[in-house]
Structures are given as structure tokens and as C-alpha cells.
Design brief:
The structure is a homododecamer.
Chain A (H helix, E strand, L loop, with lengths): L1 E7 L11 H4 L4 H15 L1 E7 L3 H14 L2 E5 L8 H10 L3 E5 L21 E4 L3 H14 L1
Parallel strand pairs in A: 1-2, 1-3, 3-4, 4-5
Helix pairs in contact in A: 2-5, 3-4
């Protein structure tokens, strides 16, 4: 079975409580459980990882290059500031799909620029929980 | 049955011939036929429209606000230059999903900025033909 | 009798329906009929033209240089992107008045820059339907 | 009778003498007298105020919020540099119409940016003396 | 007793009436009276000065260098445009504390840049009336 | 015989009348007839196309990839704004020569940047009618 | 009793040793003990936290949203680079006061921009140890 | 006898006391008296004017266009921010010489840009008191 | 017979050896000999000059204003950095044609800006050796 | 014996596997062992530290100020984003040498700017493993 | 007797012939002879040097540090491009006065920035031949 | 024996005298003699070349491509302005090492950008005389 790592970046542990007018009321747990449901259908096994630490995300991506076939990542705030995560994505040589809950292009100017997207296979943004499920389907096709 | 308009912008009629190292070998016809297959599964009816004319795309979006429930658009070159299409998207009040075959964030600098994305519900880029199919699934959820 | 061409750019055909919080509830028809009323008072004959196509607007301005004495234009989205319309205005050698329904200077940053205004006689923005009537009076004085 | 304050900013006291190739030969006195004529027709009473002092213009706008129904202002050079006048316009809560004799968009780059326009109801520029008369008509409609 | 000059810049005379959603409902009088109360506790004597004129503020700062031990200033709009007040602050050699009622960093882009702050001892912004009282305590420590 | 497509962009139909101090008094007809004369000498057959419509120019370039061996294009205003024409040039895989009547580098700042030139084989600007004849000779050598 | 979290960012553990000409000779311990003294007077209980890790600061802010009533933070270097801390501040919904020992507006250009300030209630900078004590008083008023 | 107006802008009344490491120890009085001495030699009569008020300087320049033959101006801080003084210089049609005590090009970045210099005949900066005397000699030659 | 000066800038002496993937394998000698052949046909006499020294090129242009009727110049690297050569071109009052072997608009960003082009009659770039021959024909027409 | 700390930043643990076309095939272990060999020759003792965590690198630099005489650091991705590491370098008061395996100036634009270099003694980039050995020799001279 | 070196940069050998509408009709010889006259009056001996070569100007400045007491330089085009001359000015430790015939601030944008001025004692621009004479008087005072 | 060319750019002939607080007291002669010593150890023969002329440096690099195996260059001021030297480095196809005495990244903003570095193998800056010796060792490894 294909193994896929799902990484959620800073503050996404607070989903459901945090700015519901921007991010909706869905929690990270419910995203994970919806992904798990779909993953069975697609014959994929998932590993979930959430961290507020840029370094831990870099560590995790580095380790995944051996054990996984693809990565789905919502780098959250680090999307706009982390060259380290970008380099980790390039270094791991896996196909990586970047997802965002909200449409980052209709928010503040500084959120329009993604440092990580150029290193990814593709990007899906603006569909809430559905962004993750679409990413899973994308991964299924790529791998 | 939900009706969805699929718009393809300038030069996409040449798909398959045009810069295959960037856009792949898939033709617009095969994209349309794959979309048609999936649309049946999702109980959606599709209308296809391709034009190299900014004005025709604006016309079409304006007309669709009465007859359709959603739009999937690959504005191609107009992504980066057309305020008119952006305004048409906002004016039509329909959910619009922007798609791109290639990952626009790993190409020339001027392709990183999408004028149309802020007016859309969301954006999917980088998955080739699959970008359109994911958009169709996204539309199914939104409508 | 002085003949004046009135050009309305992209998406203005949707006036009344489109983003009423920005553009108000007045329709293009009612603008035209109010202008017609005032034009009689001022002894001016009007020709109305609306198009979503940059090229058609360029064509129209080129033709008007023979048949008209002045032009009133709301280039809408093309205000911010069209060097072709700007060049057409310069090329036709007629006095041209640029109008906007909304105050473009209190909207998004990219709407603050008018590419067409430098080629016009003057600009009137922010007074809704009244912007057109003021433009008609301005034209009366200039011609 | 509706009272309207007409403010003219720095160096406009020199009109008629100053750079006639840019501003024409009309004097501030003749502008005022043409406005007075039209104001009677429109049942408006006018108060005229000219100052080269940013602070006096701010003072005047602040006082007008009690005694007037609208303001017509040509901020001249302060258009491009005064946040204080912009804030005064916002603070007074009256409809304010910005006017310019010349088309500021066909002059030096630094004159293209108006700091005050975003706080105004609308802007009229490029019609010489006629700019003021159009503003008066605009005010009549707004109030 | 230590004498401290309190300067309020343009439009602050309208406090309480002006944009209450931004500046709150407190008036300049009530700020002054709260400051007076606290100043007695801290053994400081206060002189209050409000002006909409950049030049008068420069004059005042120049005079204060002889008679006062410190200055508390809310330069309001001049924060963002006045090199003259910045130079006056440097020239007077007194410790100066810049205060703002609102958090200028969460407002329009052009309000994020303070020309005067680099010449001051420090800056306090965002606490409404309390900003002034904190400034008074800061001054007490510095002098 | 080698077939070459000659495309003239917006407002070039007005040549001879339009701003003669910039573009000279030569008409498009006389350019075409001079080109025809030279083309016979060089054993080239020419097809002439003028349009004010960006979309029509894109259409035309797309069609030419089958029927022609090279393109000579004066994109006029679209030089500075059209990614669609740039993409069409790249997509058609033909050698394309960009020409300008005037020296675009000695005109307004926004005319210094050509979006289309990077996709072309080369560029010739500033020699009036002669620019087209030189382009024809260049094409002769390339094909 | 109101509980307030006090966060100190990277390198502030070295206070007293580190660049004393910029930051003074006061140590973090003495700041904490001065704050403790004042907190008793104001009936506030304090929790102190120092970390050089962006992720730990994000973690801490996330946890504090349950246990504390307000946060005082000196993000130090992360002021200028951390979108993650900014998002954490917004996500926690507590009033947050940003403090700086030095006047960041009179230092290097890149220190003038605070990414975190727009998400805070207010900012106090330039008063050394006193900045923290003023922040504590500000918090007392807000809560 | 030729009459020349000498204008000194904001904070120059404090010369001798103000930042002597930048401006030297010379006072405005001594500059004026040195200028008076030289003016006699050159058969010029001088009028001295110092103001911290942008508006007063604009007033003064406007009045001088009748009574004087030339102006020597040190606009100080207004050099970098005043379009109003620039416009007054252009409007008065007199030859104007801009002077600076310090070399403005070796100070802070924002002091490198003079808004007023383009409207002047020439500029002399960096020679302390001597800048004024050289300006007087320059004026003698021009008039 | 018309005399024309042909100037080649820095590193062009290495043509044929230097980066053949950019500049081709043609040598400067073969360019000169091809030009000589064509010049005879066109009844032009040529003088060739190559230098790596900006100053020598300036000297040469200055001298040519007496002895030549036109100049063909490939300023190479100095295209992008030399105001001195630009000024020399303007000063000599001869028609000057700028040529480039490669298409400078499809190379590094800093090569897109030509400082010298605005001072020239026109520019030809991208045709290798042929660029020079086209320039010679252009010169023939101009003189 | 002089003790020197060698810090390697994010993703350098993957050296040898990661993008060998950019970074070569050498591993971090082989770099360390080559450094150890040379260090003995130079009578230096080395401590090696690799981390993907910005905060850990800041911690380590802070601790080293007591135990080491110098630092050699390859901040990798943090070179371009970390003010915290820059401040740590300044705070520790040790001579620090920045090294890079690749020539960062011939890579993507955003890698040309080093935030950390201004705080270092010097920088060595582009020599692969040899960069570290040169740094060690540099350190030997400095200490 | 004080020895002063007078350096004139590129194209100034053509003065009198070159763009007389910008630079006037005076020749370099007449400037030199007027300077010689004044220098005798001021008891200064002059050495004149003109070169179109940046390197020769750098050489000359380097040599002058031993033999001269001051330098008057018109770097002409090199004003805007030469860091080498700037560094030479700083390196020679002599007082240097920069002069310009025309007012560089009322010409093209790229001429507003002087790279050399920050390294000079002061700058005089806009007075034609008189600029040099004023510079000579300035030098007299400084030395 | 491997021959290496050592090039020193403008003003480096003044080393030891010039701004010793930036460049130290070492002379170019002593750098050369230290290099000579080390070169013997490394079995390299050196040729030294210093010039203030950009063109001579370009000439020299062009000649070296035949006679030398590598180049060590300190382009000094030309680092920041010379495309010609950059092109010469690329054209010569030799490995080139750029050196700087001072840390150019801790000096003025305009010195942070090296135009020549992207064309070099690597760069060493900030170690004074030692920079050259390290470069020699680097060259030894590369060749």
C-alpha cells in the first residue's frame, strides 16, 4: 500500500477555534478522519504530523524520503517565510502537494507569495477540508 | 442536473502540440472527454468553451450567471493580465475554480501573479489534465 | 448638431445586477436614457456603444475620429490594463472624457492607476450616473 | 439654502499669472464669480477660502462640518503630500468633491498620486474653470 | 517641578466626534484632564498644545527646549509626512515620547511608516487614552 | 516559395494620420506595397494581416504555424501588455521578428518593456518603414 | 487574580551581556523581578517564558489562550520574520502587547517593519526595562 | 539696486545650538551679517526671512515675484517634502538658488531627494555658511 | 563615398571562442569581412574599431562626428552600464544604429535595459552576424 | 588548544543525497572528517553541530560564547531568512566565518541576499568541501 | 601657492558643440581661462585635466593626493555610474568639490542620483561656467 | 608549474594609505610578497596585475585564457558596476576566485551586490590579506 505523509504547519492544531470566519469550523481531527476514509477507498495509508516548529517539519520531510511515496503539506504561515522547508521539499525528491484551506490570493498581500510552491508538484487552495481530499486524489494519480 | 461551464483561454486550443515539455502531450479534446466521463459520475452537465479573445471570455462569463451553477476556468495568459475577466468573475456571483496545467509558481516570475485568483473560490495548479478533474470534484462539493 | 460617442467597457452591460454595493442599482439603460434627456437640452446627439472587447473599443474609437466631435468613455477594467485604448484615444485626436461610476481611488491599489487618463482631456470619477451627465456638460464646453 | 465651502490650496491665488501654459489665463476671481453665478441657479450659497497653509485648510474643514453641507476642494500641491487634509476630510463627514484645473494624470509622475482623493466622494480633473462648475453640479445632486 | 509639554497634532481637536470606530469616543479634553490627574501624582506640571499647523508644532518644540524637560507628542497625520517635526525633535535635544491612540500598524499601509519615531526616545501606540498616561509614566522615569 | 505572415497590431490601420510626429506620414498601404516589392526580389510570398484585437492576433499566429515559415509582427500597444501573444509566438514554433516604426526605447517608460520580444528571434526598432524591410531580409536569412 | 503570560524571544536570555550599547546592562532576571514587584501592586499573576525557538513561542501562545487573560511579548528578531507568531497572536484571541527594549525605528531599516504588531493590541518600544512595566500597566487597563 | 530675498526654512532659527556636529556652530545671525557684507560689495540689497511654516514660505515667494529679482532659499526639511514650495518657485518665475549647509547627499537616504531643486536654477550644498555666500555670487551673475 | 564607423565593445574580440552557445561561432574578422563585402555594394566605406575600454569608445565617437556620416555600434556589456557612451552618442549628432548578436531580451534581466538605445536612431538585436548587415542597410537609408 | 564550533544548518544532514548537481556527492561526515584532519595540523579542536532548527542554532551560538574561540557556520536556508541567527552571531562577540558549498550568487535571486553575513567576520562560498577547510585556516589566522 | 586639480569627465572636451541647448555655448577652453583668471586673484595655481576614461580619472585623483591641496571635479556621465571614482575621492583624503554645468535635478531621472557626491565636500550644479568659479571660491575657503 | 593571474582593481594601489580603518595597513606589495611565499609552497607561479582601468582588466582576462590556469581577482569598485568584467570572466572559461579585503556585506548597501560573483567559481571576503592566501589555496584545489 502506498504510504503518504500529511503535514500540517503552525497553528493548524487550533483549527475550529481559530478565526472561524477565515478557516471555518472544521477541526484538524475531522480533516484527518475524512482523509482516512478517502484513503481507504484509494488504497493509500496515511501518516499525520502537525507541528508549530519549522525545524521539526524539515526533520520530518527529510525522514519521509525513505519511508513514503508522497507528501501532502499545508505549511500555513511557513508558506510565506520558510526557505528551509522549500529546500527540504526539493531535497527529499518526493512529489509534494501544497494545500491551503482558504484562498491565500484573496487575503493580505504578504500571503500571496508562496516560497514553498515552486518546489512542489502543484498547489490546491481555497476549498476548506475539501482541499485535502483533492490533494489525496492528486497524489493517487501522481504516484 | 447541475450545469457547469468550462472555459479555456488563449492558446489552449494548441495543447498537445504547444511546448510539450511544459504542458504535456494531452490535447484539449482528451481533457474534455475525461471531464465528460467524470461529470456523468458526478451528475453534472458540462458546457465547453475555448477562446483566444479576452472579450469573448468576459461575454461568456456574463451569460453564464443565468444558465450555470459554477465555472471552471483556465485563463491561461489572461491569468496575469486581465482585470476584465477578474471583474466578470466577481460580477457573475457564481463559484469559480481557477485551474492550471503547469505549476505556475515554478515558471517565469510574471506568471506567479494571478489577477483572477482573488476573485475565485479557489485555485488548482500543476497536475496537468488531473487539475481539471479535481476542479470538477471541487465544484461538486461547493454547489 | 454635435455628435458625441459614449463608450462603455467590459461588464458594464451587467450594471444594476453586478456588485450593487460598489456600482449602485442603476442600469446601463437608465444611464443612457438620462444622458439622452440631457443631450437634447444641450443640443448634442449621442451614439451609445458597449463592448467587453478591447479590440472593438479600439476599432470604434478609430472610426469615430471622422464622424464624432468628442468621446465619453468609461473603460472600466481596461482603464488599468489597455495601452491599445490609450493609443487609440491619442490617435483619434478628439477630446475624450474618462468617467467612472465609483471613486477608483478608494478601491483596490491596482485600480488607482489609469493608463488611459493621460491621453484624455479630463477625468470624472465617483458620482455614479451623475458622472456621465457631468461628462456630457464638460463635452458641451470643450467642443 | 444649502451652504457649500469652496477651498483653494497653495499658489492658486496666483492663477492667471502662474504658468499659463499649464493652468490657463483664468484668475481665481473669475472662477469664483462664475461659480457664484451658477450657485444662484442651483440655489446654493457659497463660501470661498484660499490658503497656502496646510494647517489653515485643516482648520477650515474642521469648522465646516458644522456650518456647511458639502465642500469643493482643489488641494493643489497638498493633493500629493497631505495626510492631514485627507484625515480632515474623513473626520468632517461631509461629502467632498476634489477638483483640478489641469489633468493631473498627464503631468509629472509625482502628481499622479492623490492622497486626498480616497477620502472624497469623487474627483474631477482637467477641465479648467469648468472643473469647478461641474463640481458644483455634482454637489447639488449629492446633497 | 518637572515641566512636560504635551503636543497634539492635526484633527485631534475633533476627537470624540471624528471616526469613533477608529479613535473611540474620548475627547481631547478628557485626555488632558486624565493626564492632569496623573501628573499631580507624579509631580509633573503639564502644558497642553494642540495645532493643525506643522509650522506651529515646529515653533513650539523649538521654544520648549528652554522651558521643558520632556515632550509627549501625538503628531497624528504629520507622523507620516513631516521631516520638519522630526528635525525639530532632534534639534531640541529633549527626550520625546511619540504616542498614538490607535495601533498605526493595523491601519492603512502609509500609516505604518513613522518619520518622527526615529528621532524620539520611544513610541507607544494602540491603547487609546491610556497611551498618553503610559507616556507620562515613561517620561517620569526618563527625566 | 517561402510564405511569411506580416501582422500589424492595434491602431496601425491609422498610420499616416495618427501622431505623424511620432510615426511619420507613411501609410500601412505603402508599407505593404514596399514589402511586396522587396519580397519578390527575395522570392518570398507575403500575407498581410492587421487587427486591433489581441484575440484575433493570437488566432492568426496559431493558424500560421501550419501554413507559414516565419512571422513579422509589429504588436504595437500589445507589445507591452500581451502575455497571450507572447505565448502564441512561443507555441507556434516559427521564427518571429518583432518590428517597431519608432524607437520604443526613447519614448515613455512603459514602452521600454516588451513582453513579446523574449519569445521572438530578434527585434528591429526605430527605422520607420525601413524596419519592415530589414525584417524581411532577416527572415530571408533565417528560413 | 488575572494571569498574564510574559514571552521573551531569541537572544534575550543574553541580556546584560549582549551589545550593552544597544540593549543596556539590565538582565532578563532583573526585568522579571521588577515586573513581579509591579504585578503584585496591580493584582496580576505573571508567568515568564523565554525561548529562542519560534515553534515553542507559537506553542506557548496557543496554550495560553485557555489559561491566561493577556500576553506581553518581546518577539525580538522574530518581530521582523515570523508570520507564524503573528498568526498565533490572532488565533489566541487574547489582547497582546508587543514591547521592545530599544527604539526599533532608529535602528537598521529591516527592524522598522514589525510583522507581529498588526495582530497586537498595541506596541511600546524604546524605554528599556520600563517598556515591560508600561506594558503591564496597559494590560491592567485592557483586561 | 538689485533686491534679493533670502529664505531660511524650518529649524534654521536654532542654528548654532542645533546638532552642531552636523550644522556647525555658526548662527543664522552671523550668516545674515556675512551675507550683508558681501551684498554691499556686489551692489545687492537683501531681505531676510525665516519661517518654520510651509505656508508662510509659499506666501513669501508669491509676494517676492513682484518686489525681488531673485531668491536664495534653504528649504531645510521642506526640501524633501514640499510640492507647495516647488510649485511656488515655478510660479514666481524668478531665478531661485537652493542652498544647504551640510552635504545632503552624505546624510540619511530620505535627504538625498530634493523636491524643490528641479524648479530652481541651481543648487549649492555642503559648504556651511559659505554656501550662502556662493549663492549670492551666483545670483549676481544670473540677474 | 559615405564613411561609416563600426564600433565593437568589450569581449567582442573573443567572438568565436567565447560562449559559442550564446554568440555563435562566427569571429569578428568574418563579421568585418561580410560587412566589407556588403558595404561595397552599398557604396559605403567602413572603419572598424574594437575596444574593451569605455573611454576609448567615447573618444572614438567624439572624433567620428567630424569624419563620418553614421555609426554602427555593438556596445556589448557597456550597453547596460555606460552613461558616458550614451552621452557621446547624443553629443556627436550622427545617426547611430545599435546592434546585438543575441536577443538581449531573452537573456538575464539586467541585459534587458539598454542605456544607450534611447540615444540611438534604432536598434537591431538577435540575428547574429546578420544584425550587422541589416544595420548597414539601415544606415544606407538614413544617410 | 583553540576550540572552534562548526555549525551546519537545515538539510545539510542530507548532503550527498540531496541535489548532487548543486551540492556535489560529498557527505557531511566526510566534510567533518576532512576538517578534523586539518584541525589537528592547525592545533585546533573542533565541535560539530548540525540542526534543522533555527532555535537550536541560536541556543548553540549563545552557549559557545563561553566555551569556544570562534565559529564556522553554514546557515544554509537560514542564511536568507534568519534575523535571530544574525542577532545571535552579534550577541556572542566571537569571530564567525560563514561558509557555503555552492556559489550562492549564481543561484536563485533570493539566495543572493545573506542576512547573516553582515554580522560575520567574513564569508567563503562556492568551493564545496574546500569552503570549510579554507574557513578553518581563516579561523586559525583570526584567533 | 595652493595647487588645485581641475578634472573634467567624459564628453566635456566637446563643450560648445555638444547639445548647446543643455550645456550652453561655452567651451572647455574658455572655462579654463576664466578659472585661471580667478585663480590668480585667489592665489591658487591650477592644473587642468580632461579625460573620457574612468581609469585615467582614478589614476589622476590617486596621484593628486600628494601634489595638490584640493580637487574640483565635473565627473559628467561618471557621476551616475562610477563607484571607482567615488572610492578614489574617499581614498585621496583631499577636499573635493563636485560641479555640474546644468542642473542635474531637472534632467532625466537617472541623472538625479550622484554616486560621487557623498564622497565630496560639497556640490554645485546648474550655473554653467559660473559653477566652476564658485567651486574655486569654495576651495579657497576650505583649504 | 601552474600559472595563476592575480588581478587587483581600482584604488588598490593605494592600500596601506587609503582608509586604513576599512582596509587595514597592509600594502599591495606585502600582499604580493605573502602570496609569492605561499605560491612556492603550493608549486604555483603568479603574475600580478593592478589597474584602475576597467578596459585593461578586461584585456588582461582575455589574454590570460591562453597563458594561465586560473585567476584570482579583487575587482574592488568594479565588483558593483562592471558587466564588462563579468562577461570577460565568463568568456575566458577559466576558474576565477573573487576576493575582498573587507566584508562587503557589512558596508554600504550598494556594495552588497556583486555583478562579477555569479560568473566566478567562488568568493572570499572579509579576511584582509588572508583573503588572498585562502584564494590561492582554493585555486590549488580547483586546478
Amino acid at each position: 500500500m502506498t504510504k503518504v505523509l500529511v503535514i500540517n504547519g503552525p497553528n493548524l492544531n487550533l483549527l475550529g477555534e481559530r478565526e472561524p470566519e477565515v478557516y471555518g469550523k472544521v477541526t484538524l481531527e475531522s480533516i484527518n478522519s475524512e482523509m482516512t476514509k478517502l484513503s481507504k477507498e484509494l488504497d493509500i495509508s496515511l501518516e499525520f504530523f502537525q507541528s508549530n516548529h519549522e525545524g521539526e517539519i524539515v526533520d520530518k520531510i527529510g525522514e519521509a524520503r525513505k519511508s513514503c511515496k508522497a507528501i501532502i503539506i499545508n505549511p500555513a504561515a511557513y508558506t510565506h517565510t520558510s526557505v528551509a522547508i522549500r529546500d527540504a521539499i526539493t531535497a527529499c525528491s518526493l512529489p509534494v502537494v501544497e494545500v491551503h484551506l482558504s484562498n491565500i490570493y484573496s487575503r493580505e498581500e504578504f500571503r500571496h507569495k508562496s516560497l514553498t510552491a515552486p518546489a512542489c508538484k502543484g498547489q490546491i487552495s481555497g476549498f476548506g477540508l475539501e482541499s485535502y481530499l483533492l490533494a489525496l486524489r492528486a497524489v493517487k494519480k501522481i504516484v
